[in-house]
Amino acid sequence: VRAGVCWRLWPKGWDAALPAHAAPEMLRTPLQDLSLQILTLNLGQPRDFLAAAPQPPAPTAVDAALEDLRAIGCVARDDDDDDDAPA
Fold this sequence. Notes:
The protein is mainly alpha-helical. The protein has 5 helices and 2 strands; from the N terminus they run αααααββ.
């Protein structure tokens, strides 16, 4: 990196409206995809795995993603221990 010129192709007023940082990818990625990957890779339960993240998604959002996956038959609930598993 060195000193130089920065050309911005938008009006000056737009800079104030832009966020200082982008939202973490985990909060931008569909949780259905992420939950299914966690289950497929045997990384544990999505709720537990994602809760350990520095900026985890809301537990209700993870539960809703798992319900979506169950509704379309991608995830089956194991009745013995209430864990989810790829269908």
